Structures are given as C-alpha cells and as structure tokens.
Amino acid sequence: MFEKILIANRGEIACRVIRTARRMGIKTVAVYSDADRNALHVEMADEAVHIGAAPSAQSYLLVDRIVEACKKTGAQAVHPGYGFLSEKREFQEALAAAGIAFIGPDAHAIQAMGDKIESKKLAKEAGVSTVPGYLGVIADDEEAVTIARDIGYPVMIKASAGGGGKGMRVAWNDEEAREGFRSATNEARSSFADDRVFVEKYIQQPRHIEIQLLADGQGTCLYLHERECSIQRRHQKVIEEAPSPFLDAATRKAMGEQAVALANAVQYKSAGTVEFIVDAERNFYFLEMNTRLQVEHPVTELITGLDLVELMIRVAAGEKLTIRQEDVQLNGWAVEARVYAEDPFRNFLPSTGRLTHYRPPAAHPHVRVDTGVFEGGEISMYYDPMIAKLCTWGSTRDAAIAGMREALDQYYIRGVSHNIPFLASLMANQRFVDGRLTTNFIAEEYPTGFHASDLPPEDPAVLIAVAAVIHRSLNDRDIQISGKMPGNKAKVRDDWVVVLDGTQHPVHLHPADGSPQRIGYTVDIDGKHHTVWSDWQIGEPLFRGTVNGTPVCVQIDRVGIGYRLHHSGSQAVVKVLTPKAAQLDALMPVKAPPDMSKFLLSPMPGLLVSLAVTEGQEVKAGEVLAVVEAMKMENILRAAQDGTVAKIHAAPGSSLAVDQKIVEFA
C-alpha cells in the first residue's frame, strides 16, 4: 500500500480524498494556487506545495508542476479527483514515466473513453446502444447546419472533449445550429483546449441515468447500480439520487451489463461511470464514459456501503477486488443536492466573495456534507462556485427527501448568494416527489426562471409565532439589566403586532410551563393557539424547536429593528412592534428603488469579452449587446427593448462587478 499520495485537485473533492487517505493511514500532499493558499484542503493535508498562479491554466492544469510536486514530497501516487487533469491521458503517461502511480484508469482507457466521438464508436462495437448522430469532425457552422438537417431537428451540439455542461448546445433550427456551433466551439477551446464538436439526435423527454463501475484490471468489473441525474440546469447536474425511481430490475441489470461490456472492451481499471440517456419507454442509449470519480459518487456510497476512493486507491496499489457482483446490495435511498454560490433569483449568476458565516448541518449517518470551504474562506472567481455536496440517506425515497428538506433548513450561509432556496423548492415540487423526472424538468417547471413564488407554500403562522417568541425572549433578557433605580421594575408586555410582508398580525403570548433550559409559549394568532417550544439561545443563528409539535428550523438574522427569517427556502423580513408603534409604522412611506432600466448592467462579476454596439447606434429588442465571460462560460447579453445607445461605460477586456454599468440608453 502507498505511504503517501498527492491529490491533484482542490476544493471539496481534495478534502474528501484526504479524509479517506487519513483513515487508511496514508499521508497526503495538497497542491494549491495563489487563490487557494489558505484553502481547507491545504490545511487538512500533511504537506502542501504551491504550483502557480490563480488561473487553473497556470496551476492545476500544469502536468509538469504536479509531477515536480510528487518528486519533491516523495508522493508515490496521485489521485486526480474530477475535472482538471483527471481525464488527461498525457497526465497519466507523465506520472508513469516518473514512476508514480495514477489512481485511476490506464492511459489507453482514458484516451478511448475521453473522446466522445471515439467512445461512441467503441460503444457501438461493444454492443452498447447508441444515439443516432454524426461522429465525424465538423469543419464550420455551415457544415453543422447541413449535418443537423440530415439528422433532423432537434439536435445536440457537443464538444468532443467536453464535460460539466460546457461546450454543449441544443439547436431546433438552422440559426440555432450556427450559433450553437460557434458558441460550443469557443467554450470547448477555452475550457478544454480542444475545439472539436459533434452532432447527435436530441432525444426529447429523456432521463439521464448513469451506471457506476469498479474494476481491478485483474478480471473483475462490477456495476454498483445506477444514479438518477436528470435534474439539470444548462446540462449541469443539480440533484442526484440513487437508485433511480424509474428503473425496474430488468433495465437496471441490462444497463449494468452493457456498461461492464464497454469497460471490458478497453481493459478498464479503477472507478468509472457510463452515462446513458433513457427515454419514456426505458430504452437506453450510451452517452459517454467518465474515466474518473464522479461528483455525485457519495449517493452510491450511501446505498452500497462502499468507499469508492478507498477502493480506487487499493486497485491502484495492485490489490484485487474481494467483492463480487452478487455482494453489491441496494440499501435504502440517497439524495444529493449541489450547494452553489450563485443567485437563483438572478438567473443563477455566480456569486463570489467571503463566507462571513458558514454552518453546515451536523453530519450523522443520515446526513453527509462534502465541502471544501469554511467560515471566513472565500469563493474565488477562478473556479467552480460549488460550496458543498449535501447528501441525505433514508430507508425510502420519501424519507431521504424529507431529510434533505430538514438539512437545507439547517444550512446557514452568509456573505455570498447561494442556491438553497432553489434546492428547497425542488425538494417540495410535487412532480419531483412523484419521481416524474426528465432532463427538461427545470426548464418545464421554472420556464421563466426561479422566483419567490416558486418556493414551497408554508403556513405564515409558523414564522409569525417564531418571530414573536424570539422578540419576547430578547425583551425578557433586556429587563434583567443591572443598575436599575429601586422601584423601577420593568415588565414585558404580552401583546404585540408582528408585521410580516407588510401585513400586521396582532399576537398574544402566554408563557408555558417547562424546564428552565427550554423556551415555551402559547402564541395566539387570529384566534388560534400555537404552542412553541425551543432550546434556542440568544445569539444563535438557528431557531430549532417545535410549533404545534412539528419540528422546525428557522434561520435568524437581525435587520435593523426587525428580523430576516429563512425557512423552507423562503425568507421574510419581520418586525415585532407594540400596538402603538404598529399604528405609526403603517403610516411610513415606502422608499422606491432607483430606476436603472436605461442601463445594461453586468449580471455577474466577469470579463467583458466583446461589445457589439457603439454610441449613437440604434438597437432592436433581442439584439446582442455584449458578451460577458464568468466561470469559463460565455453569457450573451441582449437588448430587452428597442432603443438608442447614449453612452458606453465599459470597454472590452474590462473586469466587471455585479450591476456595473456597461451601456447607457437614451
């Protein structure tokens, strides 16, 4: 067994590999860029080596720097995680030449499966079902249009070396095929240094279901059942679960056996994943093979009890697998939600900055949090904005979903925007709960984007009661102040008015008998009694307790004289006032925000790649105005209405902040 391994990655996956290596008694080496000097994975590892500047092309993607770090520290093996160099044949070959083990497949398997065009040819030869399409290299956008017409719209234009949703476009007509080819090519060149794309038939109403494989290169190749990954946004997975609520035993077995056949065709070794598109009739078609550990591997670990990272390390060290296919069991259900630093209310734009407060849910056998950040750490503009992978396990799918809703309520993040409200909405969506999923789920359920109205409906009495109890507790503490004049004993009132979303709710509180360690009140709201119990302490950001016997977890932020409460993904600003103050509050004018409609504002921090207009130019609604690049994704900004450009506020090449002015209209 290895004595020391290097993790050629960063963030949560580096931390996750370090945890398993530590349990196995293996020392670890982290590598880091300028931006990650104080990152969690650097702190967790036994050693750390600086490898370059913040951009990944100048650090994490430099093969020679990684090899040099291995030699410097005496690392005998490298775990690549996912992304970066994990599927680069040249990396595996460079490590082999230096006598360093690669914790992953051999170079020939990486090359064969890493190219989407060649992998589809190999899959067909191995007897694996494939999607109709054109696998040749496409010269230009006009050839892309010709091919798309031959296949028949709609088609999918995909980067051959792509991954993570980059370099992927759906085209429904000639114009979209031209634009999709150009955009996919540019993204592929920027992200993978390989601008080849191919075209295949776009299967409507599809599910994305993948098979986890594990092979030792010594004759044993197992499929560890499937993961349902259909909940995607812009081809990026958002929710994953294992097993799939759609597959039956026969289809599961057939998909697993075809995945194993493909792996055997390339003498595969280590963990890998074969992805399939599955239609409404359970017909399945090969999509691609990922020759690495998947982001969503924890859900497979939760239902099988296997540690995939440990098994990858053991296989790379030459050990033979001791488990057989019949030993791989399905135990319960697991769901994973990807928590991202992005603003779901602003079209999921990335959010960067410092995590001023960060408290994930407490880990236990039913809740797992894989993260690479910490309170006070920073979400960098240079890398993927993932904060964590939140996973829950239950004996049934309903139990796993219920656990996820509870865990999301407990996830306290401040300093950056995050997608927890959106994740909470997904968990409460009846179509999701019913398991009626396709890769079009988000587009169909949120056709105009995500809005506050999409959040799960909750009884406002819960927030009203909790706000009243919080305020009463603070007042109880205030009257305990020392140094008061004799004979001036203060008394806390029992009658208040809770102002929630502009509506006033008179409440009356009765202290309930209980232990000194617990807060207990009966809160009368609109003639109904609500009993609240909690062990909340003043200053804690989470109010945990029960309302009418139902467990609740409400996040609390003090905002001026009121509170901002977060529950089930939604948030509300609440004020608790005396009856007289409530009368006066109702007379206060509402301050209107400034009108910024005449400006084109940058929707995210990023680089202004190009500007398509000049001062004095007339533009039409829908016309391209500018292109902003963020997180290696090109974002096209279009005119919302007809107008004339009055002034240009930013030049191509400028680094933009959120809401920075780019163009001003007359």
TrEMBL record:
Named cofactor requirement(s): biotin
Keywords carried by this UniProt record: ATP-binding, Biotin, Ligase, Lipid degradation, Lipid metabolism, Magnesium, Manganese, Metal-binding, Nucleotide-binding, Plasmid, Transit peptide
GO process terms (BP): lipid catabolic process
All copies of domain Biotin carboxylation, residue ranges: 1-447
Lineage: superkingdom: Bacteria
SUPFAM superfamilies: Glutathione synthetase ATP-binding domain-like (SSF56059), PreATP-grasp domain (SSF52440), Rudiment single hybrid motif (SSF51246), Single hybrid motif (SSF51230)
Boundaries of every ATP-grasp domain copy: 120-317
Record domain Lipoyl-binding: where: 587-666
Name of the protein: propionyl-CoA carboxylase
Organism this protein belongs to: Azospirillum humicireducens
Taxonomic placement: Bacteria, Pseudomonadati, Pseudomonadota, Alphaproteobacteria, Rhodospirillales
